[in-house]
Amino acid sequence: MNKREEPIIEALKVVKRFGDVTAVNGVTFSVAPGEIFAFLGPNGAGKSTTIKMLTTLLQPTSGTLKLAGHDVAKDQDAVRTSFGIVFQDPSVDDELTALENMQLHGAMYGIPRAELNGRIGELLHLVELWERKDYRVKTFSGGMKRRLEIARGLLHHPRILFLDEPTLGLDTQTRNLMWDYVKRLSDKEGMTIFFSTHYLEEAEQIAEHIAIIDHGRIVAHGTTAQLKKQTNTTSLEAAYLALTGKELRDEPASGKDQLRLRMRARGGGR
Amino acid sequence: MRVIYAVWLRQIKRYFRSKSRIIGAIGQPLLFLLALGYGLGSVYQRAGQGDYITFLVPGIMAQTVLFSAVFFGINIIFDKQFGFLKETLVAPVSRLKIMLGGALGGATTSVLQGLIVFVISFALGFRPHDWLMVPVALLVMVVLAVALASFSSGVGAIVNDFQGFQAINQFLIFPLFFLSGSLYPLDTVPTALKIIAACNPISYAVDALRATLLGQSHYGLGVDMIALAITVVVLVVFGVYEFRRIEA
User: Fold this and answer.
1) Pairing, β A36-40 against β A9-18
2) Least CB–CB distance from A57: residue in B7, B92, B248
3) Domain span including residue B163
4) What pLDDT does residue A251 have?
5) How close, in Å, is residue B16 to chain A by CA atoms?
6) Chain-chain contact of A58 with B84 (C-beta, under 8 angstroms)
7) Engineered SS bond to A231: which of A54, A66, A242, B178, CB 3.0-4.6 Å?
């Protein structure tokens, strides 16, 4: 990592409250350009909320978040152009074909028409879906959908790629293949990769830097070696457990249920 | 424009890929047209009002647009539940365009269904009194469909589950339909019903369709058009406002 470079992701004292619940409580961290960064934490620790704020889906209550130099709250469109994201749950349109999903994304991101088909072809070959480009996505397996989402997330040449638990529910082959692509992209294009995962061996193998969030606060931030040294442990998993404790966390169901709870708390009846 | 077109095209493709939706959406108005048309036709004629099916066709065309366009918002809930909405919410485009593109898609398919009813009615002996007015009737359907599809998008933005959406729809659709003069002439109804119908935007759409296709009108085409213009502005603003407030 080049220390002189401006960080491409910067969070400064970021707070997010839902009613009287503080989900994220003064989070500060930064990610250098081109880096592969793992964001870890138990369920309900504030991980998803932080990713949603970074990707403009939620507004922080206070603090600043910057992506590629643009303020997430003030300069939304510039921020949105700078990143691609693969969500935890599928977000492709099942009724459209793989190609149509890509074309729709291209239109929304204003990719010049002359370039679009070339780029789509390149990416669908990369994720090995070219032969299936004219099939409706509802005929795809979970792994194929994930690959399509990765291809789609890369279509507008983002500087940052967010991967929210990208390997959840994928078999070992697909996981390996996926991380191969991602590493190649990071090496070749200098793309910054920001991912969250519950598989600590993944983070240990792939990430250059790691941040661990718990109870809405960053409890550790550094390289795997630094985290192990800090906790006097020999593996990232041991370091993680030393930092976050061993008790189980109850996550308030899915994101949508959280949304409903929040809306109810606001009295919005949604 | 490219974004609006792309989002519009998505809705059109989804519509044509769901054959059951097309058939289902045409079955209901057909039932109304045949059962009521032939069932009440003789009573209507005996009352000296002429051919009931002819009178009914514009009302059922409006009903087709109403049911179909108000149902459109369910797609927003689908997009929420199946994740596609997030893809549109992180894209560097305004929510206004996403909402408009979708609502225009929903409006297009609704108008298409209204036109299918129009064509089918020819088999039942219906003929417009003046072909030159048919484009105006089409415009009326487009305005009605855009207004209702926008309204429905707004409702889809507020509600998060299918049951809630259905409940709101059932609660709204039938009063709007039955109290609009789509099934009976408003000239001779009791004053209370006249007042209720006058507050119902669907009444003006039905009346405008009758004015253009049959040459008979209760409010007058000018009044109808003004009422429809106000309706479309209010409902598009509502749809855009609610759509902007969606949080992931």
Assistant:
1) unpaired
2) B248
3) 2-244
4) 60
5) 10
6) no
7) A242
Domain ranges of chain A: 9-266
Chain A residues close to B5, C-beta within 8 Å: 107
Q: Between A and B, how many residue pairs show a Cβ–Cβ distance under 8 A?
A: 81
Q: How many domains does chain B have?
A: 1
B17 contacts on A by Cβ (under 8 Å): 95, 136
* Probe site for chain B from A51, A88, A95 (most B CB atoms < 10 A): A95
Of A52, A96, A256, the CB nearest to B10: A96
Enumerate the H helices of B90-161 as residue ranges: 95-123, 134-158
Return the ∠ at Cα B77 (arms to B73 and B80), rounded to 5°.
140
Report pLDDT for B248. 63
The string of pLDDT tens digits covering residues B61-97 is: 999 999 999 999 999 999 998 889 999 999 999 989 9
Q: What's the rounded Cα separation, in Å, for the pair A9 and A262?
A: 28
A60-78 burial, b at 16+ Cβ within 10 Å, e below that, comes to beebebbbbebebeebbee
What is the pLDDT at residue A267?
46
Nearest to B116 by CA among B30, B7, B4: B30
pLDDT digits (tens, 9 = 90+) for A84-140: 999 888 899 999 999 999 999 999 999 999 999 999 999 999 888 999 999 999 999
- Residue A87 to residue B10, Cβ atoms within 8 A: no
> So what's the architecture of A9-266 in CATH?
3-Layer(aba) Sandwich (3.40)
The partner residue sitting opposite B82, judged by closest CB among A94, A103, A104, is A94
Lowest mean pLDDT among A57-71, B33-47, B132-146, B224-238: B33-47
